Amino acid sequence: MYMKKESRMRVQSLPAFKVVFTLLILMVILSLFGHHYISNMVTNDNQPFSHKTRNIEGFTDESDPNPRPLSAYQHEIEELRHIKASVNNELRDLENRRLRLQSEITSYSNNIDSLKTQHQTLNKEVSQIKMALEQIRFEQEESKSYIPIIRAPHRILMEVDASDKVPMPSSSQHCKMESCFDFSRCSLVSGFPVYFYSEAEYTNGFTNLESIYSVLKTIFDQNIYITNTPANACVFIVLISGLVDEKHFDPKKLENILLELPHWGGDGRNHVLLNLATTTASNNLLHGVNTGRALIAQSSFTSKMFREKFDVLLPPNLGPITSDTIWQALPPLSPVRRKLLLSYWGQFVPPEKPESGANGGDGHVKDFVNNMQRKPLSVDDTHAGYNSFSHIEQAIVSSLKSFQNGHQSNFYVDVSCGEHGATAITPGDWALCGTEAARKEKIIQSTFTLVVSPLNSSLYSTIAFQTRVYEALKHGSIPVILGSQGQLPYSEVLRWDSAAIVLPTPRVTEIPFYLQSFPDEHISSLRLQGRVFFQSYFSATQPLVDTLLATLRTRLQIPARPAKGEPSVSVFPPSFIPLKHLGPDPEPESDEILGPVESPFPSETYRYNFSHFMQMHSFNERGDPFHLYPYTPFEPWLPSESKFIGSNYGFRPIGKGAGGDGRDFSEALGGNSPREQFTIVMLTYDREVVLIHALHRFKGLPFLNKVLVIWNGESPPSVDLRWPEIGVPIEVLRTRKNSLNNRFLPYDSIETEAILSIDDDAHLRHDEIVFGFRVWREERARVVGFPGRFHAWDVKHQSWNYNSNYSCELSMVLTGAAFFHKYYTYLYSYVMPQAIRDKVDEYMNCEDIAMNFLVSHITRKPPVKVTSRWTFRCPGCPTTLSSNSSHFEERHQCINFFSQVYGYTPLFYTQYRVDSVLFKTRIAHDKTKCFRYI
Questions:
Q1: Which ranges of 378-519 does DSSP label H, i.e. alpha helix?
Q2: Cβ distance 766 to 678 under 8 Å?
Q3: Among 70, 139, 670, 696, which residue carries the largest CB count within 10 Å?
Q4: Using one digit for the tens of pLDDT, what is the confidence trace for 508-534?
Q5: How many CA within 13 A on the CB side of residue 142?
Q6: Strand boundaries in 320-427, DSSP class E
Q7: Could you report the per-residue pLDDT of 565-610, keeping only the tens digit for each?
Q8: Euclidean distance between CA atoms 642 and 563, whole angstroms
Q9: DSSP label at 755?
Q10: Would you tell me how many other CB atoms lie within 10 Å of the CB of residue 793?
C-alpha cells in the first residue's frame, strides 16, 4: 500500500518537471527574440546619432527612397516598450512560479522521506504484532492443557450436627485429624472461616481473667479469617482461660461449660480449646475433662495428654498485645560473639514420691520451694519426700559444673536458685531461677543459652522450658536444647534447626567443644533467624494467635486468603474525559526489535496454588530464597490477587525465559502465572510538564503492561492537560496523603510480577529499560536498577554514612529507576515495621533505602546494578527533593535508624554489575580498575 502511494506521488511529480522545463525554454526564446528585434530597429542605421535625431525632428533622409513620418517611429517605439514591460512581467511571474514549484518539489521530497521512515516503523510494528500473536496462540494452547475446570467439593464424611454417623475413636487420646476433624466444613475453596465464641455464649460466664477475652476479641475482630456466621465456620475458637478458678479447679464444671456451648455439636468437632495461661496451675487445667473431638492449644502438656498432629503446642503468652514496637526492647544482633559463650541458670525439681499420686504433691512442692530458699540442692541431697537424682541427672549437673570450672571466663553455669527463689516449678523439670530481669542480665551477655529438657518422661512440655526458649530468642541468644524430651512450639511447620541447636542428652560433656567450633557466619545466621522467629510468631498475643490459625490452615491444605491490594482510585472524577495529546509522536529511540508489544490484558486465572501448597516443605529442603522468612503460610496478609487465588507468598512465573535464581524465587512464591510484562509506577508531585515528557518516552515500549502515575499533589492535574497515547493504559491515582511510601503500595491495578519504579525526571532509552527487565527476569528476588549507592562506616562518629560518590562497590540501587517484584510491595506496606514508614514520612526521604534494607534482609544478597547509556538524568528538570541541603544528612540518620529497627545492617557490598555488549559505556580513566569482565 505504501509503495503504491510512493509511485503515485512520483508520477504526479513528472508533469511539474515538464512545465518548468517548457517555461524556461519559452522565456529564453522570447528574451532572445525581443532583444534581436529591438537591436535591429535602433542600430540598423550606421548614421551618427545627431543625424537620426534630425530625421526624427522632421528632416528627411536623402538616402531613404521611401521616407516615413516621425509619428510612425514613435508608435513602434511605444509598442516595443510595452512588449518589453510585458516580457519582464512574464519573466518575473515565471521566476515566482519556478520558485514555488521548487519549494513544492522539496516538500514532496521531504514527505517521501517521512513516508519511507513511517513505512519502516510500521513494518517493525507489524513484525512485533506478529510475534505477539504467535505468543498468544501458544499460551492459549497451553492454557487449554494445564488449566483444569474444578468445582467446590460437596460435604464429605459427616453432616454438621450428626455426631452419631461417625463413631468416636476408642479414646479421645487417639484423635487424629482424619478421625476427629470434620473436613466437610473446610472445603479447599472455603477460605478457612473461623468463629470466635462471644462472651454471651458461655452459660456460666467468666470467673477471672476477663481482660484476656477482651484482648482476644479485639485480635479476632481484625483477623481476615473471622466470620460471624457459625453455620459457615470451619473452626470454632473457645477461650478456656478464665472459665474456671484455677485455684479451685473442678473438671466437671469445665466439662459442663463445654457441653453447653451452642455449637459444640455433642463432641466438640472442629473446636479449638485455647489456653493462654502462663502459670504452672494451668498445666492440669484440662486433666480429667472430656474434650471430645476438640483440639487443645496451650503451652504445657503431659505426654499422655498431647496428641501428635492434632493438638498445638503454643509458646507462652508473655508479650504485649501487638508487636508493633517490640523492636525497641530487643538488643542489637552485633557483635556476633558476646562476653559469654554459654550460660545456664536453673535448678532441677526432683519428681514426687510415687505415693503422692499423679494429681497430688502440692504440699511437697511448697516444701521444696522453701527448701531451695534455705539452701541449694546438691547431688547428694536426699531431702525427705523426694527421690535422689538419677544417673542422668547427676551427669548433667556434673558436666554443667565442669563447664564453669574449666572455662570460667566463657561459661556461666549455676544449677541452684539459692536465695533468688524459683518459679514455674514442675516436678521432674528444671525450675526458673530469679526474676526475668535477673535472668536477662546473663542471657544478653551470652552467645548461647542452654535449655535443658524435662527429665520426667511424663512431661511433654512445661512452662519453664517454653519460657527459657522464649527469653533466649527475645534477648538475642541462640537456644541450645539439650535432650529430645522438650518440644518446641509450632515444630510441625517451623524449621527450628535454622534458629536453635538441638543436642541429645549424651552430648552434654561435648557442649564446649561443639559450640566453640561454630564460625561467626553460622552464629550470625542462627541469631538472625531466631530474631525473626521471635518477632513473627512469639513476641505478642496477636502473632501467637495468627500463627495458631495458620498452623491449622496448613494442616487442612487450604491456601491463604488473598491479600487485598491498595485500591487504585483515579484522580479524575468518573465523568471526566482527559484531553489527548495532538502533537507529533517522539522519534523512536532504538531501531532493533527489543521484544513483542503484547496486549496489556489481564493474566489468566490458574489453580496452581492448591497443588503447589502440598510441595512447600519439599522446596524448603532444597533451600529456598527466603533465608529469613521460612516458607510457611503464617502471614495471612501476604500477596495474592483475585486472579492469583491466594497463595502464601503470591505468584509463580510463566517460565519462559526465566531461569536460575529468578525461577526459584517465583516458584517459592507459589500462586499463578501473570504475563511476562512489567508495570511502570511513577511518583510525581506538581510537575505536569516533566510528567508529560516522561510519559511520551514510553510509547511503543516492549513488555509494558500499563503505567501508574501516583499523584502526590494536593490538587488534581490541570483539566486542560493533554495526555499522550502510548499504546497502554495510563492510570493517574489519587493518594490519601503526600507520602513517599505511596511509591511502594501494592495497588490492585498492578497485574504483573515486575514493577519498574521510575522517577518522572529519569530518562532511560527503550533498549536500556528492556535490558534491565531481562536482567530482572533472571534475578527476580533482588532489586535490579541503574543508579548505585553504598553505605560506609564512620569510624570517628561510630555510625553509618550514606555515600553517593562513584566507587567500585555498591550496596544499594535507588528505586528512582529500578525493577523489583510486586511481592516486596506487600512486605514493605504490611510486614516491615511501621516505625520505618513513619521515619520516611517524617523526613520525606529514604524510601529507597528502606526498600533496599527490606530486600537484602529477606534475600541476604546485594542488589544488581545494570549499566545504562549515561542518559539517566534530565538536566532541564526543576528542583527535586535531593537538592535540599539536609538531604544527605537525613539519609545518614535513616541508615542508622533502620539498622536499629532491624537489629543489624542487612546491606551487602558488591562489585558486580551487568553490562550489555551492545552499549558502548564511557568509563573514566581512573575507574577502569573497578570493572571485572567475565
A1: 391-406, 436-443, 463-474, 511-516
A2: no
A3: 670
A4: 999 999 999 999 999 999 999 999 999
A5: 13
A6: 340-348, 411-414, 422-423
A7: 889 999 888 888 888 876 666 665 655 556 555 555 555 444 455 6
A8: 9
A9: E
A10: 10
Whether 667 shows a pLDDT value over 80: the answer reads: no
Kindly state the average pLDDT of the residues 551-575.
Answer: 85
Query: What Rg do the C-alpha atoms of the chain give, in angstroms?
Result: 43
On whether the CB atoms of residues 694 and 732 are closer than 8 A, the answer is no
Structure pTM?
Answer: 0.76
Give dist(CA 431, CA 428) in Å, integer: 9
**Three-class SS of residue 430?**
strand
Are the C-beta atoms of 486 and 451 separated by less than 8 Å?
yes
Return the amino acid letter for 547.
T
Query: For residue 693, what are the contacts with CB-CB under 8 A and spacing of at least 6?
Result: 874
**Cα distance between residue 459 and residue 465, in whole Å:** 11
Evaluate the CA torsion angle 368, 373, 374, 376 in order and state its sign: positive
Scored b (16 or more CB within 10 A) or e, 606-623 reads: bbbbbebbeebeeebeee
For CA atoms 796, 801, 806, 808, the dihedral sign is positive
Asked if residue 799 lies in contact with residue 780, where contact means CB atoms within 8 angstroms, the answer is: no
**Beta strand segments in 465-588, E:** 478-482, 501-503, 579-580
SS3 content of the chain, % helix, strand, coil (to 5): 40, 15, 45
Question: Distance (Å, rounded) from C-alpha 750 to C-alpha 568?
Answer: 9
Number of Cβ atoms within 10 Å of the Cβ of 154: 7
926, exposed or middle or buried, with CB in 10 Å at 0-12, 13-18, 19+? exposed
Instruction: Outline where 789-872 has alpha helix (H).
Output: 823-826, 834-843, 847-859
Which positions are annotated as active-site residues? 848
- The model's pLDDT over 410-456, given as tens digits with 9 standing for 90+, comes to 899 998 898 888 888 888 889 999 999 999 999 999 999 999 999 88
Q: What is the largest CA-CA distance in the chain?
A: 180
Q: How far apart are CA 237 and CA 198, in angstroms?
A: 10
User: Which pLDDT tens digit goes with each residue over 269-291?
Assistant: 999 999 987 665 556 678 778 88
User: What residues does 654 pair with on adjacent strands?
Assistant: none
